Amino acid sequence: MLDVTVIEDPEAAAVSLDPIRARLLAELAGGPASATMLAGKVGLPRQKVNYHLKALERHGLVELDGERRKGNVTERMMRATAASYVISPLALAAVQPDPDRFRDQLSARWLLALGARLVRDVGSLITGATKAHQRLATYALDGEVRFASAADRAAFIQELTAGVSALIRKYDAGDVEEGRDHRIVVAVHPTLKTPPTPELDQ
């Protein structure tokens, strides 16, 4: 099972967003289960759970883990293909955010557009690397800082911009044909006091 997988297909995205199917994915992320086992947990008839599992299986969100005999019945044990899923903006390609339409370093909406592009691009890179059985070279830095004042925040942004810009100028080899372009995204935003947790319907 993968830690995270990216959903790029619009139909797969629609399937995953159904509340019942999202609940089934969450249950299967905890370990393999049959339709009968899941029916008791989600409060639905086994036949209805089977219907939803087949839809998830068609789109590669769940897969067969094995079969087991229970009396005169052979149960299919299903498992989630990932512990969690991210929907790529490619699933809404016609209306996906485009940060190149406008540039405003102080705009939260531009930051959101950059984040969406990051999900789209890295998701596509993961898909390509997986198919090619290659490792994808990436790097991320995550941290938190508490500013004593708005002036300190502004000074931090100024120094951060100057420092990153200097590194880009130092290492950019735009005239080297065999080099490979890399995108750099640096974001600063307030920390959420309580991260949102989605509620799953029965």
Could you estimate the helical fraction of the residues in percent? 40-55%
Radius of gyration: 22 Å
Number of helices: 6
Largest sheet: 2 strands, parallel
**Low-pLDDT residue intervals, each spanning 5 or more residues:** none
Can you give the mean pLDDT? 91
Q: What is the approximate shape?
A: elongated
What topology, given as strand order, has the largest sheet? 1-4
Alpha carbon gap, first and last residue: 25 Å
User: Which structural class matches the secondary elements?
Assistant: alpha+beta
Task: Spell out the helices and strands N to C.
Answer: EHHHHEEEHH
Work out the strand percent.
5-15%
Q: How many strands appear in the DSSP assignment?
A: 4
Description:
This protein is α+β, with helices and mostly antiparallel strands. The protein is built from six helices and four strands; from the N terminus they run βααααβββαα. A two-stranded parallel ribbon has the order 1-4. Helix 3 (35-42) crosses helix 4 (46-58). The mean pLDDT is 91.
